[in-house]
Amino acid sequence: MFRPLVAALAVAASLVVPPATARPAAGPATDRAAPSAEALVRGMSLEQKVGQLFVTSLHGQAPDEVHPGNLRDFGVGTPAEVVAKYQPGGVVYFDNDKYDNLDTPQQIARLSNGLRQASRIPPTVATDQEMGLVTRIGPPATQFPGNMALGAGRSAPDAERAAAITARELRAMGVNQNFAPDADVNSNPANPVIGVRSYSGDPALAAELTAAQVRGYQQPFPSRHGVSATAKHFPGHGDTDEDSHSTLPKVDRTVEQWRAIDAPPFRAAVEAGVDSVMTAHLRLPRIDPSGEPATLSKPAIDLLRHELDFDGVVITDSLAMAGVRQLHPDAEIPVLALKAGVDQLLMPVDLGLAVDSVVAAVRSGELTERRIDQSVLRVLRVKLLRGVLTGPPVDEGAVGGSVGTPAHLAAAQAITDRTVTAVRNRSLPLKTTSALVTGWGEAPTRTLAGLLGGTALPTGDAPAEAQVAEAVQRAAEADLVVVLTNGLSARPEQQALLTRLLAVGVPVVAVAVRNPYDVAHTAAPNWLATYSSGAGSMAAVARVVTGEVRPTGRLPVAVPGPTPYPLGHGVTW
Predict the structure, then answer these.
(1) Rounded CA gap, 32 and 390, in Å?
(2) Considering 184, 202, 288, 317, which one is annotated as catalytic?
(3) What phi and psi, each to the nearest 5 degrees, are found at residue 228?
(4) What is the pLDDT of residues 271-289, one digit of tens each?
(5) What average pLDDT does the segment 47-74 reach?
(6) Cis bond upstream, residue 222 (ω within 30)
(7) Element (H, E) at 544
(8) Is 245 a catalytic residue?
(9) Catalytic residue from among 225, 245, 328, 569
(10) What percent of the chain has pLDDT over 70?
């Protein structure tokens, strides 16, 4: 029924497309797709409308391959059968052992095309390609160091270029929505789940780079190289000291504090025309004393809808997370989220139960069909705007020439080179012929050692005494020691390794390869911060250490501790 209508809407959509140079006005540009989206809604049954409100995970890498996880969770065997059975508004890809959707660019393109063909109304295909710490699709896709590294670089053009490259490669693989950028302001150094996923602890800097990446991801309308961006995690996850995957965190902000600290990046995203905003599973007792997580809180969603004037798609974070499941049974959560003002429901624990619960709520009058129509219309407007309904399948034979191109890789390395922060320097740059690279991380230590022409001795999270002794012995034979750290403040074993190596008398360079807070806890004479342990960041470290490039990054967060450093600190030579 819907295939002919969707095809006809391609013509209707072309009549409302503005010039290719146009940028979205404040709020998403979905009004351009409104006439054709409304026509589609009018032809849908209630069950079909409710399907559009769900974004589901699924198991497997091939659309027609039976996977036991699909049989267990959905009652059908293949990813295509999951989509055909439930007709969801979207699917989301993961690279973990549970879902295992992602391998090569060609495989991803085939899966995306297969799922598109299985649905009457093509689903959005999403993933979390934030870059840095949260990266679902690895090489050969172009890799960037992540948000906090971009915050250290302080370049909106670099942030926009990184997002544009990521979007172009995602779209080539059939992925048309990115659950990025992370718009949280990392105001709590103890935050266990955001950290380097945030651009900065400075609301203004985070806002500037959030807007830049929204523009980069989405591209000037009507580009077919852009993807829908999703700013997350509203109303702000940056001041938590707990992880909403495992509990329900509390953020003790007043609405005035929220406006000053957490709101600016989300406001900037809305003004840049972001298609979607993702909610957080955290409670804000001084904004909503009910104790409900923001995902289920009408006062919280009203801040987004009314104060920030957002009329795009509001999507939940995963409904399988503990933070949203503590107060209500799984059958009630989707209905409560829709009542609060959410449009799409991500990864319910039991998709069939969740769909049935929403349909039953409409049949009983707890929800009105008009309320459902509001959300479906928002979802379909974005699909039309991004060409999800009317664009062709991706070219599986051409994807290899679009992903990880030499131009993209060169741009990524140049951007990454501009993110390294020298927090303290006494000896750099240095020439080396026999460097020892030791400390945290098997892959980064070996990568950096290879780039420096030295040897690697990975010692892990908590080096044992025997490992420390071996590192000290090897350091005595080296002309340079590089020590990688991650979580140093909470790891006395890492502190002991660095302290013992400093006593050898060989030049030592310490490198914080994730959170920059490590730099305050051991008085190494040479401290670098990279905010990422990826290969590109290790290449940038090698260039900085040997003098090929000068460090130009500046701390995007204030670093508290025994030796504190202010926001914006950085040295160069």
Answers:
(1) 14
(2) 317
(3) -65, 130
(4) 999 999 999 999 999 999 9
(5) 98
(6) yes
(7) helix 535-546
(8) yes
(9) 245
(10) 94
